Amino acid sequence: MNADTLRPFLSEKGAMVFTLTNNSYKFLTLNLIRSIQEAGAPWKLAVFCADTPSYNFFARENIPCRKHPSMIPDMGPEIMAFGTKNFQTLNRKKLELLAALCATPEVKYGVYMDGDICVYKDFLPDLLERLEAGAAGAPAVGILMQCDEHNRVDCSGNSAPGACTNPCSGLIAWKHGAVDPVIFKVQEDTLPLWKEKPEDQVFIQKMIRRTGTPLLTLPRELYPNGMFASLHAEGNPRKGASMLLHYNYLVGNFKKRKMKANGDWRIPY
After folding, report:
1. CA torsion sign, 166 to 247 to 115 to 6?
2. Which CATH fold would you assign to the domain 3-261?
3. Do the bridges between strand 167-175 and strand 244-246 make them parallel or antiparallel, or are there none, so unpaired?
4. pLDDT at 169 over 70
């Protein structure tokens, strides 16, 4: 990927936090941006648009963005249902973007975020520290991911293969050179894996196991998934302790309603 187009989004340490959006997810993405700004983070989120309507929307909002290297047709403004063909198409675009940026040497640290996240604190210093081999006594790590479990013992810090049975692709971080971009590539030899269950999260999980990529999951109390959304209402101590909240597990307009109920919807749309 052209490094010149990425430079405005690179931190002093060469870290880039990025997301992928389209017409269906543009409001969620704008809400993510506002939450990052309100958290006082010094870095800019790199927004990659998969279609023309989302690109035009962020241009009107004066939000710097970039076009995905391979754009897709407009799928409409409604939040697409999980598991549909349109959802799978966007998942493939996400994997393509992850593979391209993972292979870009100028991106020394890559951090991908789904759009349905609300940020409470600047989490980037914490992720960079965790990615550095031996930081705080931690083992070397190829990739960091959010944990998508809710009732298992917290698996964070355990790098044993299979320690986390369900790492989440909604929040991913890596250090350049520590992970092979192949874990994100749907190509001739990995296409059967994709076809078994065409979801980016499942595909990445399978590829991590196939390649033996060292994985650490993030502590659920700091990086909770959507199963913990009800514990993050205004005034709840859990909200003050978390870096962010990923509103997965909630679909369609229920996602937006819960974000509003928790005080996490930051835009007028």
Report:
1. negative
2. Spore Coat Polysaccharide Biosynthesis Protein SpsA; Chain A (3.90.550)
3. unpaired
4. yes
